[in-house]
Specification:
heterodimer, A: 63% helix, B: mainly alpha, globular
């Protein structure tokens, strides 16, 4: 999930009777599936939760450009280079309109980016894993964007209007990226050499479990979920979404002719669902806390881009001010 | 299907035309690759989008020019082969396009000096006697016009921004200036293109390039180095700066490391 472990500031749900008249009106509006718009009254905790969630989502888009940028200079054909560059550009675009949606809640983009750079804000942990071969560009599209889509499709109906509308456009582009990613893998598996096939399997081995972790902790360890569900910021539980992702992904894995690094993965005829082994939640929480393979590197790359560009932004401001003085 | 007259021209000029297309394609490719290296390093998110945009345009142009060159070579090569399997000495790009990214002033200075030439050249090529070149030029001209507007604006902003940005922009200009002579240089390949009406009059392009450069630098409060300064040339005949080898080593890594791979 592009926004994970979002704090809601509340572990207990209020009933309609316990709410103030404003809160009650707000909750009833949500219950009736009427979108909340920037000028509507909203509880402070709802606003803060959304700012956290949307900013995390935006940060994820921006940090997510880095592992792909790592292979952009080494894309093996002009077609793949154009596709990857367009994908990364889409991600920068998603970041931009998510930050804009966030600003409708009164948050400031620069302040939120500062929080990312000093470690106060999170972003999706998946981007703290390194991209080590070209097949990773396919796997990220297929598994990572695939998991993101499963998370984001319900967000198109999320209760906050500007976020829901941003997600409609994001989802369209993500679906395109996912097909492209799968195509990269399929080409290598069907027309590639043994070396290329080995790249694909190696890549799947590394990204399989982190992709399943993208949906966040199991429902019993997800204390903020109930409030987010009541606010319809979240519409399905983590486990439900993870299962949906797995059910759609395993047949695609089989079509590739690859395997998952999970000896317990099997189809249950009775339930009609795939079952999977134990997720290493220790690894998940380690990476969330900053102890993943690339956490430091990713943040340092973002900070360095913004810091080393400070003189450029200052020049733009100074020039604009000069122009204004001349015009006056 | 070509008409016989066109076929004749093509046969007569095949080798110089191929070389000319490689010059166009390689410059776009190499400058595009410099943009790919900038991913995630822009000074603001809006610039991240703009840099990727310019890079995408350049790679697209490279694919068109190299695709045409490959067809003329008729040697079982395609655009990818030309991009990923040739060595530095076979590249025909302008030296300015391979210069390293440096800081944002270097990036924008390089882009501006190139764009100011590129736009006028493409404009001329839209009237090329070769219909395919005219068609690619027309599409590319729209993109390059936007590139020039953007790079001009940045050169002006940085030149006339703060003391620091002015110093950096002037330094970038001074360093890059030695590569501008090649933009206006005419050799026998260019001459062959001009004679067959494939390429436009170089005098007119030089005059328009100078006019654009002078206008922008003046507004940017930057000092224009002398046109008579010593000029570093050679890219058009495959004599490059040291930077190109590293750029290609990175770009060509996969097709070179896995030469048996036919599909990616």
């Amino acid at each position: 999930m592009y926004a994970q472990l979002v704090e809601t500031g509340s572990n207990k749900l209020k009933t309609l009777d316990e709410m103030s008249p404003e809160e009650r009106q707000f909750q009833e509006r949500i219950n009736d599936e009427i979108k909340i718009e920037p000028k509507n009254w909203m509880p402070d905790a709802y606003r803060k939760t959304l700012i956290r969630q949307i900013s995390q989502h935006a940060h994820s888009e921006i940090v997510g450009m880095l592992p792909e940028g790592n292979w952009l200079t080494r894309a093996p054909t002009l077609k793949r280079k154009l596709q990857l560059m367009a994908k990364i550009q889409d991600e920068a675009g998603h970041g931009l309109y998510l930050y804009s949606a966030m600003e409708t809640l009164g948050a400031d983009r620069d302040e939120e980016i500062d929080k990312l750079h000093d470690g106060r804000a999170k972003y999706s942990s998946i981007f703290n894993y390194p991209t080590l071969n070209w097949a990773d560009m396919g796997t990220i599209g297929w598994l990572v964007d695939g998991a993101a889509i499963v998370n984001q499709v319900p967000l198109q109906r999320t209760s906050y209007g500007p976020y829901a509308r941003a997600m409609i456009r994001v989802c369209k582009e993500e679906s395109f990226h996912q097909r492209q990613g799968y195509q990269i893998l399929l080409t290598m598996m069907q027309e590639g050499t043994d070396d290329q096939k080995a790249m694909v399997q190696d890549s799947i081995n590394r990204f399989w479990w982190p992709s399943l972790m993208m949906f966040g902790p199991s429902d019993e360890n997800s204390p903020n979920s109930a409030q987010s569900m009541a606010w319809k910021i979240k519409r399905h539980s983590n486990d439900e979404l993870r299962q949906r992702f797995l059910d759609q992904t395993v047949p695609q894995l089989e079509l590739l002719g690859c395997t998952a690094p999970d000896p317990d993965l099997k189809y249950n005829e009775e339930t009609g669902h795939y079952e999977f082994g134990e997720i290493d939640w220790q690894e998940f929480f380690d990476v969330v806390k900053g102890n993943g393979p690339c956490n430091r590197e990713r943040i340092e790359a973002r900070r360095s881009a913004i810091d080393s560009g400070a003189w450029v932004r200052e020049a733009a401001v100074a020039y604009a001010a000069k122009r204004q003085r001349k015009a006056a | 299907m070509q008409n016989p007259a066109q076929k004749n021209v093509a046969q007569k000029t095949q080798a110089p035309l191929t070389d000319y297309l490689l010059r166009l394609g390689d410059s776009a490719l190499v400058l595009g690759q410099r943009h790919a290296q900038l991913c995630g390093k822009a000074p603001a998110l809006e610039e991240e989008l703009a840099l990727m945009n310019v890079g995408l345009d350049l790679f697209g142009q490279a694919r068109n020019w190299l695709g045409y060159a490959a067809e003329l070579m008729n040697d079982n090569v395609d655009a990818d082969h030309l991009a990923f399997r040739r060595d530095a000495q076979d590249f025909r790009n302008l030296l300015i396009t391979e210069q390293p990214n440096g800081d944002f002033a270097d990036i924008m200075g390089r882009q501006f000096l190139f764009d100011a030439w590129h736009v006028h050249l493409l404009d001329g090529l839209t009237h090329s006697s070769d219909p395919r070149i005219a068609e690619v030029a027309a599409k590319s001209l729209k993109e390059a016009t936007y590139h020039l507007r953007r790079s001009s604006e940045w050169v002006i902003r940085l030149g006339d921004g703060t003391e620091e940005s002015h110093t950096r922009m002037q330094r970038a200009l001074d360093n890059l200036w030695q590569f501008t002579g090649e933009l206006l240089q005419v050799d026998e390949i260019d001459q062959a293109m001009i004679e067959t009406g494939i390429a436009p009059d170089p005098e007119a392009i030089a005059a328009r390039w100078k006019a654009t450069v002078e206008e922008v630098l003046e507004e940017a409060t930057l000092e224009r180095p002398s046109y008579d300064a010593w000029m570093y040339t050679g890219g058009k005949v495959g004599h490059h700066t040291e930077h190109l080898g590293f750029l290609l080593a990175e770009m060509q890594y996969l097709p070179r490391a896995y030469p048996d791979a036919t599909a990616w």
